[in-house]
C-alpha cells in the first residue's frame, strides 16, 4: 500500500537560512504516520478508544537535501517492521516537483495500555494485528 502525504512548507517552519529547521521533520513524520493510520482504517483516535497507546521509542533521520518556504513535499510512510509488540515506521520524503529525496527516516514504537504497560496486539486486538500485518512491507 503506497500512501503519499502531501504537505506545503510554511514560512514559520524555516530558519534564518531560509530552510526547514530540522526539528520540524519530527512533526512531519507524525502527521504522515497519523495519515497512514487513517488510510489503514485504524486512526489514533480509534486506537486510543481501545486503550492502545503507541509511544515513540526512537527517531532516526538522514537529511539528503533542504527544502524551503512554499516547497511541496511528499511523505511516504510505510510499515517497515511489526511484530505485535513493536512497530517501526519508515518514511521517504521527496520534493513533489522533481522527486529529489529530502529525507529517509524511521520511527520506532511499542504498544502499551494507558498506564504505559506493554501489550500484545495479536493476543488482545487480533483485528488490529491483522491490519498491521497486511500493510507491512
Rounded Rg: 16 Å
User: Order of strands across the widest beta sheet?
Assistant: 1-3-4-5-2
Total E-strand runs: 5
Fold-level CATH name: Thiol Ester Dehydrase, Chain A
Flag low-confidence runs. none
- CA-based shape: elongated
The CATH superfamily turns out to be Hotdog Thioesterase
Indicate the percent of residues in helices.
Answer: 25-40%
Query: What order do the SSEs take from the amino end to the carboxyl end, as H and E?
Result: EHHEEEEHH
User: What is the CA–CA distance across the termini?
Assistant: 8 Å
Q: Structural class from helices and strands?
A: alpha+beta
- Total number of helices: 4
- Beta strand %: 25-35%
CATH class: Alpha Beta
Oligomer: single chain
Largest sheet composition: 5 strands, antiparallel
Mean pLDDT: 96
CATH architecture label name = Roll
* Overall tally of structural domains: 1
Describe this structure in words.
By secondary structure, the chain is of the alpha+beta class. The protein has a single domain (about 5-135), classed as Thiol Ester Dehydrase, Chain A (Roll), CATH 3.10.129.10. The protein has four helices and five strands; from the N terminus they run E-H-H-E-E-E-E-H-H. The protein has a five-stranded antiparallel β-sheet with strand order 1-3-4-5-2. A hairpin with a 5-residue loop joins strand 4 (about 85-95) and strand 5 (about 100-110). The longest helix is centred in the N-terminal third of the chain and has 16 residues, at about 25-40. It is elongated and about 50 Å long.
